[in-house]
Amino acid sequence: MQELNELWNVIMEKIELSVSHVSYEMWFKPLRVLDFVDNKKLILATKSTFAKNQVLKNYYDKLKNIIKEIFEDDVDIEILDPAEEKTFLSENKKKDKTVDIQSDKNPFNPKYTFDNFVVGKCNQYVYAASRAVAENPGKKLNPLFIYGGSGLGKTHILHAIGNYIREYKPNLKIKYVTCDDFTNDYIESLNQAGKINAIGAFRTRYRNVDVLMIDDIQFISKRMSTQEEFFNTFNELHLNGKQVIISSDRNPDEIPELTDRLRTRLKSGLIQDMQTPDFETRVAILRKKCQIEKYSIDDETINYIAEKIDTSVRELEGMLSKVWFLATLLGKQSADISDAKEAFDDKNEEKNEGGKNAEQIINAVCDYFNITKNDIIGKKRNKEIVEPRMVAIYMVEEMLELPLVSIGQLFGGRDHTTIMHARDKIGKEVKTNKKTQNIINEIKKILQGG
Ligand code: ADP
Ligand code: MG
User: Fold this and answer.
1) Residue 13 near residue 29, CB atoms below 8 Å
2) 221, 227, 233, 284: which is closest to 260 by C-alpha?
3) Which pick of 26, 285, 364, 432 has the fewest CB atoms within 10 Å?
4) Is residue 239 part of a domain?
5) What is the pTM of this model?
6) Domain of 5: which CATH number?
């Protein structure tokens, strides 16, 4: 890995000399190198799908040429967005046991603090509970269970608790993991040769702490042994007055395939949900972000962005940095409404590129099932409507990759958990059931045919 990083530094130095300062800062600096497969293919990671697409669209050839000059040979380049990176890393971990996710370095993002967290109606209770837990871990609100849709700030608030405790109670031992980390870590220790020792070491890592945080618990493995291990970890910590903090994209009752006793445990403390932020909170979040990142963007533009994006904070932030980037490309000192309009135009184009919009997908589903759009987005619950509705939700999610909250809005203001349920259900059927596969294929044909 050391060598690989050095190699990457050489490449980066050369890139820095060949592209503008702004594009270097914006697109190249955030790239990370993950692997150099068989000395033939470089695997790079980006911060977002948007960043990936931008690099592919605008800089791929340049990158390739620079690397070719260094190696005097063609090198393939694969760029991964965060989701692809995750898959890549988990596949690679299986091969490479030396990767140690349990290093002691600070797992918390220094930007994810309480100070940087904007409090509004949507998250005031989560904020208050998190502060109380950070100030007095293990005392009252235990476990603290936080849930809400993607991009609403769950990971941020967990890190804020972590950063706070590290600063004000440095003697406390904190362990923060995603649910996937926990599962992989456990499975690995089961598979290791000195099994008993490995499991012992695993238990020490998770039970010998004052605060345990598990992010995205909804991914808890269906494997009974992992759930059992988590259940026992939880009990031991809880019994000893240690704090447990959990986040999830849905409430405990909606997490599928959870054993009853684990569900009961998860519900035994304080459960708080995060809602999507209202307009004022969105504006405040954008202002805060400008202050942190030193963007200069006028009020009209901030309001414009806050009006247009009302789903997740992650989307909101993505759009803000895009607007800022477009302004800097033009050499402006501050961004104004024209940059925002440009950014939104881009976004609309991106969505439709070679593809269809939600309206067209829903219409195709209606055509296939011979029902109306009102049936689909309405409230009817008979089987003839419910199935097509779920198929439409699945297809919109799969083809457009919109946030669940936005899809919920497209489908008559449904809750994001309903959307998730439909997506998961049809997603599963598509893999196992020929009939469902055929339905989806037929609808895709209708879409293609116009
Ligand atoms: P989740 O874990 O719920 O998917 P994250 O915690 O990753 O969401 O939040 C997505 C982004 O939005 C992060 O950059 C985070 O800092 C930001 N964010 C979310 N909520 C707030 C808030 N209330 N104030 C400031 N930033 C926020
Ligand atoms: Mg998260």
Assistant:
1) no
2) 227
3) 432
4) yes
5) 0.66
6) 3.30.300.180
